[in-house]
Amino acid sequence: MTLSPPSRVYIPAKEFPEINFFGLLVGPRGNSLKKMERESGAKISIRGRGSVKEGKTQFADDAEEDLHCFVTADSQDKVAACVKLINEVITMAASTPESQNDHKRNQLRELAILTGTLRDDENQLCKNCGAAGHRQFDCPEHKNFTAGVVCHVCARV
To answer: Transmembrane residues, as ranges (predicted)?
Structure first.
């Protein structure tokens, strides 16, 4: 098995310092990175400044380079497919506002599922009015259930 020449995809972290490209590429528990590797058949390593936490060891030759993805595979087609997937994530992050970024929204949803904190308001029915899209405590048709209660001591409503 001969390896295809590796490819480097530089991440524009200096141009867009407010965007967490590392987090978008890696995803919750590395799932986004693993998914890209499965789809393309290539291996991705994120290297360069900012790829490793302070105090951890890093590849010596890449330590002073800019943040980049190092892509390797056994064929050039797999490398090209992987580079395309990486560029799609980078382009979406750089061109789309964070609130409209579907990739990030899906990652946050996946993280909530993994941690058990997902509140799926979209598919639940309100226990007060029966409508979908909100919870009982936030119901626009809030009913006062105490209005019909009669006090047994003084017989007042």
So the answer is: none
pLDDT tens digit sequence for 73-114: 999 999 999 999 999 999 999 999 888 889 998 999 899 888
C-alpha R_g of the chain:
25
Check whether residue 91 and residue 154 sit in a common domain: no
Phi-psi region of 64 (alpha: psi -120 to 50; beta: other; left: phi over 0): alpha
Q: Which of 81, 89, 69 is nearest to 38 (CA)?
A: 81
Q: How many domains are contained in the chain?
A: 2
Please give the Cα distance from 111 to 26 (Å, whole number).
12
Provide the 8-state DSSP code for 66. Answer: P
Give the residue numbers spanning the domain of 87: 7-115
In a domain, 2, yes or no: no
What is the tally of helices (H) and strands (E) in the chain? 4, 3
